[in-house]
């Protein structure tokens, strides 16, 4: 309620400021003031009005109103991550009320995959820790009203060197993540062969733009 009142207050201030500028311009024109200066003031007023309208449109589209809020496995668990841990965390996010406060993401960090890709070059969830697969885990997390994030790297291997990176497999991996229902991607920068990041990151970025996945 406070935020709504605050925005309303700012809105009235803005409208009052615009009205003052319009009155000033009108008086200048009536008193035969320099027409080019009056035109400049009017143009600046129009720009300010456009910027305010654009700002309000951006707030109304529902995007980026808060930072991505949730939980990530790395800081506490490092490579000791499993589907049981993710499910327990999802349950805890709901039972503690964090979901109601806007915490939506459960993000699996490094070490979730096998050391090697399968025969078709796809990333594979580690069978000993994610026996049900990532798709089934995503379905479980979604059933709790949460979103699932995952980890990859713009290099040959991830930073732990315990699973493949996405370098050279960007499009393939983006399709895999999409098929699993992944909502968020943490994309690291290890083992990158000293290739310019602008070359490595842009490929996956375009794939993320084409679906509602947040990529960081």
From TrEMBL:
It is an enzyme of class 3 (hydrolase). Its EC number is 3.2.1.22. The keyword Disulfide bond applies. The keyword Disulfide bond applies. One of its GO terms (biological process) is carbohydrate metabolic process. It comes from the Eukaryota. It holds the Pfam family Melibiase_2. One of its GO terms (molecular function) is alpha-galactosidase activity. It catalyses: Hydrolysis of terminal, non-reducing alpha-D-galactose residues in alpha-D-galactosides, including galactose oligosaccharides, galactomannans and galactolipids. InterPro entries: Aldolase_TIM, GH, Glyco_hydro_27, Glyco_hydro_27/36_CS. One of its GO terms (cellular component) is plant-type cell wall. CDD domains: GH27 (cd14792). Keywords: Disulfide bond, Glycosidase, Hydrolase. Belongs to the glycosyl hydrolase 27 family. This is Alpha-galactosidase. It comes from Pisum sativum (Garden pea). The lineage of its organism: Eukaryota, Viridiplantae, Streptophyta, Embryophyta, Tracheophyta.
């Amino acid at each position: 309620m406070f935020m709504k009142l605050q925005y309303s207050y700012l809105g009235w201030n803005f409208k009052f400021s615009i009205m003052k500028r319009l009155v000033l311009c009108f008086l200048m024109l009536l008193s035969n003031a320099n027409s080019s200066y009056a035109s400049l003031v009017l143009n600046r007023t129009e720009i300010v009005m456009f910027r305010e309208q654009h700002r309000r449109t951006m707030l109304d589209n529902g995007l980026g109103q808060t930072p991505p809020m949730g939980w990530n496995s790395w800081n506490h668990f490092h490579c000791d991550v499993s589907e049981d841990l993710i499910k327990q965390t999802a349950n805890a996010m709901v039972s503690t009320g964090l979901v109601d406060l806007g915490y939506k993401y459960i993000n699996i960090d490094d070490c979730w995959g096998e050391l090697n890709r399968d025969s078709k070059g796809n990333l594979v969830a580690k069978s000993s820790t994610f026996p049900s697969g990532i798709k089934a885990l995503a379905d479980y997390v979604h059933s709790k009203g949460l979103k699932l994030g995952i980890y990859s790297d713009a290099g040959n291997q991830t930073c732990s060197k315990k699973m493949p990176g996405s370098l050279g497999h960007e499009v393939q991996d983006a399709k895999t993540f999409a098929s699993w229902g992944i909502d968020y991607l943490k994309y690291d920068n290890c083992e990158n062969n000293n290739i310019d990041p602008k070359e490595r990151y842009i490929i996956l970025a375009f794939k993320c733009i084409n679906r509602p996945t947040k990529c960081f």
